Request: fold
Amino acid sequence: MSKKQWWFCSLLILTLLVFSLFFLALFGVRNIPDLKQSRGEILSRIWGENIVGQTIIPGHNNFNILVVNLKNPALKNKKPLIFHLREEETESDLRTIKLNGLNIGDPSSIRLQFDPITDSLGKQYYFFFESRASTHEEPIEVYHHDEDVYKNGQMIINGQPKEGDLQFVSYYRALSKKVLIKSFFFQFWERFFFDKIFAVFYCLLLLLMPTISLTIKKKNNG
Reply:
């Protein structure tokens, strides 16, 4: 590849990157992943007095979404299910969301979105589910892992700490374009170093750039 072609490829890559950032700043999704506990091979039942929850410590302000994996076995449950979010060691809800077994699949990922908590960074929160009207025969179930894989929190059943963690993903709301672009770069490099398929694909794209540039040049000359 000649020096001219190399510069052409570099300029093309830079242009694509700038365009991507511009598009992201204007139209990008502003809810950014924060915490993730992806292991969930075990089910705990939510019914009657049986309440299941988890403590977490958000890594950013404006905590506003939790995604939790639930299961409604055979779609039998049609009872109310209530999500509570509190600061640790308090008795009043910061956020409350009312659900129903009718909204829950077998299984399904439930997205719980609420108004951002502006000062959530570094604070400990406790979220839990209850379904007082559900019976032992027709419970809602929540996925969890039986080991302490999320070190900044723990699973809570009926007010008592238990070994293990619920399966969940939390998000925060990016209120500025600067934060959004910074998050984009961080997630790109994180994925590049930890996702081998993505890294190989990206490197192949760079290697193919000279061929692409030559093809474009031939078409222009033709």
